[in-house]
Design brief:
There is one protein chain. The chain is an alpha+beta fold. Helix content is 41%, strand content 11%. The chain contains nine helices and five strands, in the order H-H-H-H-E-H-H-H-E-E-H-E-E-H.
Amino acid sequence: MGMMSWLVAGLAGTAALIAPGAGMTQGMTRAGSGGTSEAPLSDAQILQAVDELTEGDPVAITAAKAMLSGQAGGESPFEYYRSFAPDVAVLGHALWSADRLAELDWAAGTEDSLDQFDLMVSAVGLDLPGGIAEHIDAGAAAGTLRRGDVVGEVYAMVWPRLRAEGYHVVGLNTDSDMHMMFVSPEAAALRWQSVAIGPNMYFEVADWQFSRNMQDAGLAVSVPDHPGTHTRTPPKPD
């Protein structure tokens, strides 16, 4: 369901800054009222986010409840986040369990990028557009692609199809070199944009991460700023 070898290396420095036990203890129940670095989201806010961002995916919601209640089991790679980013632990586990979460190193190659983007878009019933691999091969042959460009090039080619269907790509920005992304309806994506999910961690519409690739492709960047630039409190339920 994804690549997790990056976890310890990518966030060990962040974990070292957070006192052990600062997150969840028994069953991951928290009393936070949320969306800031000082307080995690409440359980109700977590479930609201999962519900809205996945269009009510029952697998994701069930997995989130299991992680909150301490019933997820040790097999979840997102157990790693329990002590210092409990919101990420629940959100990541929910999306991973529902086969919605694309996980890519910033410098991933073509094969991994296509596999993970295919997983992400297929969760909402869409296919990847054709010609992506050929586009990347042509750019590599011409010497116009830099290290780390492949993920952004795939993003820019997939973006028009997603936007035409009313979707955004949402990221769990964990202040690391790893992209964790999923597809969400536009309204939900914008409602949760810039809500904190941990210390220097946020929901984000992922466009700003790939703004150069998008601009090179003649696309308008929907949300051009880092999510921490304008932090927001969690939206109230409808």
